[in-house]
Write a structure and sequence with these properties.
heterodimer; A: about 325 residues; alpha/beta; Alpha-Beta Plaits; 2 domains; six-stranded mixed beta sheet; four-stranded antiparallel beta sheet; 13 strands; about 35% helix; B: about 280 residues; mainly alpha; about 70% helix
């Protein structure tokens, strides 16, 4: 009985699901620039993995290696256990990359028709249009579309072949809030259908909203990896914000306080635990107002992680 | 229970992946169809490729000189061969090089390479585009020549001329691919013109070959447009009685060299993040 339970539990753990794409001890140099340094990274089936990092961290390089568009300087990139550039792999993969130009005189339906023809079992055109929210733009020429609409067409081209593995490189860059939410919903629907997604982004909110696992990358190295909660837990503590007459020196004396700073009319206090600090604050200053307590967000975790490591690496730009 | 990851190994090979010949042909045809539509709707391409040779022909062959002759050939007939070469060259260079340079430089080619598109389909589509527009240009020149220039050619000769010139678009498509791999998207038109225009002049496509200065005539011997125009002139009876084979050999060698250069550019792109 307990053996069965153990089997069930370990099968639910994502580590046991097959690895769909991986970088094994991969380094990538462009001349003197070391874009990736000995990176080990894998994507398991049915997950959304976010590669999160600032611009220039190496995210796009990682994606292009996994798509077979670039060759590693050392180490191996693998997709479905084979060389990523093999035609068999490409038929199971879809990619949404950052592009500066898409042929503007072709219509949306024509672009999708052409890309669908490359795949052995593509989705029907109407389904692709509805998944990408493009039903009303079917006959519009690409050049007549807005920025957010163009991104949705690129998304449609990535999914039209019904791929098992989807790469999305900064998919919502330049989109307004509403378009971004729509695209997030579409991505979630795809993943519920069993697809695997590797997403790169520098929007922390996006990684937090979509990913099962986040790998934080900076200056060519993966500096942290885990679920969004695990990443957030790497910076401990809480942030307390309030409007108080107490001065900063007094605040720093409070139990467990790491830092205190003035932010316009309020103060921001970072502490290991909120409750002891708040008890003291309310005792010392009963007229305190505007009290907010939040967990250190992904942003704090991210900044802390990237700034720490940033000092240790040399990089030529 | 160990928690080591399981990797896909034979799964990829056991799935029935692969295309039938019919599916591959469909891809090639669609790629060519959309390449054609894309450029047709780009009025700049269609108009410039077609109108320049036509304008020059009308001006120099029909309005001026239409009653003159060069050797045994009337000017309007002679100029169909030379401006036909000029038009074919322009259609091929602009059809391949500027599109390729832009697609490369701005990331679109990478999107296509990341997809299962057979890479050859992309290049074939551009070559077919060049051939279609080449055909259109030559046909227009023929129509104008027959209608207004008193050109008279038996039908087999017309067919041979058309076939020669359209086949001759291939070396220039190859040249276009070579150029497209080595220039950026913004400099492509300028780079193309820097090659296209001097080469056309020195090959005797504007000023007929025999009227060029001696030094230029020497240079022409290594220029592909010279050889193509000589082949075309040979069809209309104005050739210099050199063997056609020698001209074709030069064109074939030139095509192979250009394809080699293009391939070097293709390999070079694999080391670049963008492009």
């Amino acid at each position: 009985m307990s053996a069965t339970l153990a089997v069930m539990q370990s099968e639910n753990r994502p580590d046991v699901r097959p690895v769909v794409a991986s970088l094994e001890a991969v380094s990538m140099n462009y001349g003197a620039v070391r874009a990736l340094r000995n990176v080990n990274f894998s994507v398991h089936a049915g997950q959304v993995v976010a590669l999160l990092g600032p611009n220039g961290a190496g995210k796009t390089t990682a994606v292009k290696l996994l798509l077979g568009l670039l060759q590693t300087t050392s180490g191996k990139a693998r997709a479905f256990g084979a060389d990523p550039s093999s035609p068999a792999n490409r038929m199971r993969t879809g990619a949404m990359l950052q592009v500066g130009r898409v042929p503007e005189t072709l219509r949306v339906c024509e672009h999708i028709d052409l890309f669908s023809s490359y795949y052995p079992r593509p989705l029907p055109l109407d389904r692709v249009l509805s998944l990408a929210g493009l039903e009303k733009l079917r006959d519009r020429k690409f050049g007549d579309l807005s920025g957010g609409q163009r991104q949705r067409v690129l998304f449609a081209l990535a999914i039209c072949g019904n791929p098992d593995l989807l790469f999305l490189d900064e998919p919502t860059v330049g989109m307004d809030v509403e378009s971004r939410r729509i695209l997030w919903d579409e991505i979630r629907r795809l993943v519920d259908g069993g697809k695997t997604v590797l997403l790169t982004t520098h929007y922390l909110e996006e990684a937090d909203a979509l990913a099962d696992r986040i790998a934080v990358i900076n200056q060519g190295e993966i500096i942290a990896e885990g679920t969004p909660s695990e990443i957030k837990a790497q910076t401990s503590g809480k942030m307390i914000r309030c409007i108080t007459k107490l001065n900063l020196a007094t605040l720093l004396e409070l139990p467990g306080v790491n830092s205190a700073k003035q932010d316009r009319e309020a103060v921001e206090i970072r502490a290991v635990e909120a409750e002891p600090v708040v008890r003291e604050l309310l005792t010392l200053d009963p007229l305190l107002s505007g009290l907010e307590i939040t967990a250190a967000g992904l942003e704090e975790a991210f900044l802390a992680l990237t700034q720490d490591r940033g000092q240790n690496n040399n990089r030529e730009i | 229970m160990t928690t080591s990851a399981v990797t896909f190994t034979s799964a990829a090979n056991s799935l029935p992946i692969g295309r039938t010949a019919g599916e591959t042909l469909t891809i090639y045809l669609k790629e060519a169809k959309y390449e054609f539509l894309k450029n047709l709707r780009l009025r700049v391409y269609a108009l410039s490729v077609i109108s320049f040779p036509v304008m020059f022909y009308v001006l120099f062959g029909l309005v001026l000189n239409s009653k003159e002759a060069i050797g045994a050939t009337t000017v309007p007939t002679y100029l169909i061969a030379t401006y036909g070469t000029f038009g074919v060259m322009g259609a091929s260079l602009f059809g391949t090089a500027s599109g390729l340079a832009a697609d490369r430089g701005l990331g679109w080619l990478q999107v296509k390479r990341a997809s299962p598109m057979p890479p050859f389909a992309y290049f074939t589509a551009k070559v077919i585009l060049s051939m279609i527009f080449s055909t259109v240009v030559v046909c227009l020149l023929l129509i104008l020549g027959f209608s207004f220039g008193g050109v008279r050619m038996p039908l087999p000769e017309v067919a041979r001329l058309l076939a020669t010139l359209v086949a001759g678009s291939l070396p220039f498509s190859a040249l276009g691919l070579a150029i497209g791999y080595f220039v950026g998207p913004n400099s492509a038109p300028a780079a193309i013109n820097l090659i296209y225009l001097p080469m056309s002049f020195c090959s005797g496509l504007w000023v007929p070959y025999m009227f060029l200065p001696k030094l230029v005539r020497q240079i022409a011997l290594v220029l592909p447009p010279y050889h193509l125009s000589q082949l075309a002139l040979g069809v209309v009876g104005a050739g210099t009685h050199e063997s056609a084979a020698s001209h074709w050999q030069v064109l074939i060698a030139f095509t192979l060299i250009c394809l080699g250069v293009a391939r070097i550019g293709f390999q070079r792109d694999k080391g670049k993040l963008y492009g």
